[in-house]
Design goal:
This protein has 144 residues and is mainly alpha-helical. It has a domain of 65 residues: Orthogonal Bundle (Arc Repressor Mutant, subunit A), CATH 1.10.10. Helices cover 56% and strands 6% of the residues. It has 6 helices and 3 strands; from the N terminus they run αβααββααα. It has a 3-stranded antiparallel sheet with strand order 1-3-2. Strand 2 and strand 3 form a beta hairpin. Helix 2 crosses helix 3. The longest helix has 23 residues. The radius of gyration is 15 Å and the shape is globular. Bound molecules: zinc ion (3 copies). The site of one zinc ion has 7 residues, from helix 4.
């Protein structure tokens, strides 16, 4: 993906996206700390790194959200994440939670071209195993 994102950073981007833009729930550093089972200070450290990369911005009342660039990166990450999940469950017979964990390990590393090929191979799946919608806008997978 060549965005130089760590696994932790990409997990925060994905989580902020699903919470704010899919579930319509605003999120704070405290929420993220609880979700990832870390101290609030370490959640704030990760958010600061993402702010410096201009992917995340602070809002009023302690809420955080994605910048336009961060939003696009999160969409790309979640596309890769969910395509990998489908592959791991359908083709490798992994459980949903195993697939999710394995997808977290690789979704931020793989080149978008490789993900697009996998996406075509899987016939552009509509949803991941958790029934989350997979957005193919910009995934680059052409045809079937
Ligand atoms: Zn997942
Ligand atoms: Zn999923
Ligand atoms: Zn796709």
């Amino acid at each position: 993906m060549s965005r130089n994102l760590s696994k932790v950073e990409s997990c925060y981007l994905k989580r902020i996206y699903t919470s704010v833009f899919e579930d319509g729930r605003q999120i704070t550093s405290g929420d993220l700390a609880r979700i990832f089972n870390v101290r609030t200070s370490s959640a704030i450290d990760v958010l600061k790194k993402l702010e410096r990369k201009r992917y995340v911005k602070k809002e009023r009342y302690g809420y955080v959200t994605l910048t336009r660039v961060g939003y696009n990166v999160a969409v790309e990450l979640l596309h890769a994440h969910r395509v990998f999940e489908v592959f791991f469950v359908k083709n490798l017979g992994m459980s949903f939670s195993e697939a999710c964990r394995a997808a977290d390990d690789v979704d931020h590393i793989f080149d978008r071209e490789v993900v697009a090929r996998l996406c075509v191979y899987l016939k552009k799946p509509e949803r991941c195993c958790h029934d989350r919608i997979i957005i193919h806008k910009g995934c680059g997978a052409k045809g079937r």
